Amino acid sequence: MLAALAFIPSPSSNAIHLGGLQLRAYGLMIAIGVVAAVWLANKRWVEAGGSPDDMSHIALVAVPAGVVGARLYHVMTDWRRFTDDPLKAFAIWQGGLGIWGAIALGACGAIWVARRRGLPLGPLADAIAPALPLAQAFGRLGNWFNQELFGKPTTVWWALKIDSAHRPPGFEQYATFHPTFLYEALWCLFLCGALIYVGKRWGSRLRPGSLFWLYVAGYTFVRFFIERIRIDFASRLFGLRINEWVSAVVFLAAVAILVIMNFHEPERPPESEDDGSATVGADEATAH
Structurally, how many domains does the chain consist of? Predict the structure, then answer.
């Protein structure tokens, strides 16, 4: 059966037709991922005791901010693609979103809303953490429709067949390639489930916000190796793709933050002689 499959076919079109309506598959997959992520994050937040209105308010700001950030990251890191035609920078339906731009600007939007609504950032980040790789998994399917973000040539049975028009220069003679977008999508689904399990199993032992940094560490660890086998054009620094550097640096930073958060005991302030004043201060801090 595996031999009969031989390869994974690519869609003949990057659009989905519903009657007279034509939808860009890339945008549709991203939209589905956003809906799924907001649903999961809201479900987890409500289970943690939050209001069901909180996540919708956050999504209204964080989602568009994340899309803008994702596009800005892509354009800045692969700016050579747009020197001949700068207007292509706005052609988001053709693909080209950088996850770190999405996380950075989306997080800024989420923090802004959370501060305005008086929400605790750590528990909120833990509720959102598994939803992020879930959204990414759907988004990567959009790359399948665009026939992009594939890896080196291969003849394994799960190889992806790419039409000649989408093969990069120097690889025109090859027909099947590593489906790196699929590798990342599957890892993201696994990471989503793993974060939910860790939260249920050890959440009480972890500091608030730890699940978010576990997501960052888990995603960047695998993303580094996926970048190693991709052959699409990318800016490089000292022989490595920019995203390889970013993945490595962010992974190390996430691991360091996790260690500091969970294994470093903060210094306790000296005990006050007036126990009553200390109690009042703690109560005021809680109320605030």
Answer: 1
